[in-house]
Amino acid sequence: MRPKIEMVKEEILSNNWYVLKKMTFNYQKRDGSWETQAREAYDRGNGAVILLYNRDMQTVILTRQFRMPTYLNGNETGILIEACAGLLDKDSPEECIRRETEEETGYRVSNIHKVGEAYMSPGSVTEILYFFVAEYTPHMHTGLGGGVEKEQEEIEVLELPFNQALQKVENGEIRDAKTIMLLQYAQLHGLLPSISKPQHILIAGPYRSNTGDDKALIEANMRLMNETALRVYEMGHMPVLGEWYALPLMETAGSRRIGDEIFERMFHPSSVRLLSHCDAVLRIGGPSKGADEMVSTAEANGKRVYRALDEIPVLA
């Protein structure tokens, strides 16, 4: 049933950043009687929001920035994790979200898909928010993102495993409504189908790095990688270390000490060769040029990169 409204008075209370109005009106109730009401409405225009996702890497792109209203209402840091969003100004929702995506995240996307629209705070704010999703790939990355400096934006771009983003919703690290809605949309509509078969995961961590070739320190590094591999195995996947291949091969080839000609010829190249047969890399431990190269090579080839055990889906 369409209510009957008679506008009585419209007052502008503030026109500083956007427009805050006080509306006085007569409202006819369901029993036919009329009453005079007054409400304040904040008009900041309409907006658009987008979730970028990558099926192969099982990741999403989000942002992190300071939000003063949350700081005033219980958010101790004022920092909020959000999906990329912006106001339409004079653009269409599609034009707006393409612009905002490149400005905030550094990705230039074209194949965007509208999934809905919603009033986000209808008791006081006039805004309608248009919701979009789009797949992204590394080659779409055109810049650093981070927002527009003249608009006083300081935005950190986050690339998160989808499962980790969902966990952040559950544990309260993500508390932004539009972001929660888009993540749940992606989950409900299977945009990033969960991994249901075991992955072959290369454990990448330091072997010689920062050990001075001290035998005890190298053994400690190997112990950490082996223990991590066991945990990955118990999660239902098949772990592998480059060292499992390289060390016996080098010994058979005649290597007698760390860093000799055979070691240098076989140790790291065997891991590079092994990576082509793996689905993902798990980066652990401290600094390691070789492990970092495994990560960058995996990312360049569209393989998943995990940086913590809790990012890996449990199958067993």
Distance between the termini: 54 Å
> What proportion of the residues is helical, as a percent range?
25-40%
How many beta-strand elements? 14
Order of secondary-structure elements? EEEEEHEEHEEEHHEHEHHEHE
Overall SS class: alpha/beta
Rounded Rg: 27 Å
Low-confidence stretches: none
- Percent range for β-strand residues: 25-35%
The major β-sheet equals: 7 strands, mixed
Helix count equals 8
Overall pLDDT: 92
Oligomer: single chain
Query: Per the principal axes of the C-alpha atoms, what is the gross shape?
Result: elongated
Provide the descriptors you would attach to this structure in a database record.
4-stranded parallel β-sheet; single chain; 316 residues; 7-stranded mixed β-sheet
Write the layout of secondary structure elements.
Blueprint: E1 5-14, E2 19-28, E3 34-43, E4 47-54, E5 59-66, H1 68-71, E6 79-82, E7 84-87, H2 93-105, E8 112-119, E9 128-135, E10 156-161, H3 162-170, H4 177-188, E11 200-204, H5 215-234, E12 238-241, H6 242-253, H7 261-275, E13 280-283, H8 289-300, E14 304-306
Parallel strand pairs: 4-9, 11-12, 11-13, 13-14
Antiparallel strand pairs: 1-2, 2-3, 4-5, 4-7, 5-6, 5-10, 8-9
Helix pairs in contact: 6-7, 7-8
